[in-house]
Design brief:
single chain; Alpha-Beta Plaits; three-stranded antiparallel β-sheet; 24% strand
Length: 140
């Protein structure tokens, strides 16, 4: 996996994996005082309460945003999610969202594990195939 950026308010740490982000801006719309894509750093956790940040992060459609509670540390495992059934949602004018653990076998034989959310391209425009990178937004 590529780079991961971390942003903390002392209570919760938000992790952002840029290569997974499909730029749906759901986080920006839900919590604009924290998620500010035109500023650096673009995630400013000090501007909202922890429960609001957690709710916004949980709504990330691509899984590019995740979090952990600092008190428990980054190795916290949600056992309930671990046994959850994998679901597929077809997003209107967007990707196929796979919610749950999957193993992806690429055409070169390489395998990749995804645990929470994976956005698969439906339009064929993504430069990050088979994953969605938001390229479909340019044609809307």
């Amino acid at each position: 996996m590529g780079k991961v950026k971390e942003y903390s308010n002392g209570e919760v740490t938000v992790l952002w994996k840029p290569e997974l982000c499909i730029h749906s801006a759901k986080c920006v719309h839900e919590l604009p005082e924290v998620f500010k894509p035109k500023e650096k750093p673009w995630v400013q956790t000090e501007h909202a309460k922890t429960d609001s940040i957690v709710a916004a992060v949980k709504g990330c459609p691509s899984g590019a945003l995740s979090y952990y509670m600092n008190e428990l540390g980054p190795s916290e495992i949600d056992e309930a999610k671990k046994n959850e059934i994998t679901k597929i949602e077809v997003m209107k004018n967007g990707p196929l969202m796979v919610l749950g653990a999957v193993t992806i076998t690429h055409d070169d034989g390489r395998e990749e594990q995804k645990q929470k959310r994976t956005a698969f391209c439906r339009c064929g425009q993504s430069v990050n195939q088979p994953f969605c990178d938001g390229s479909h937004n340019a044609s809307l």
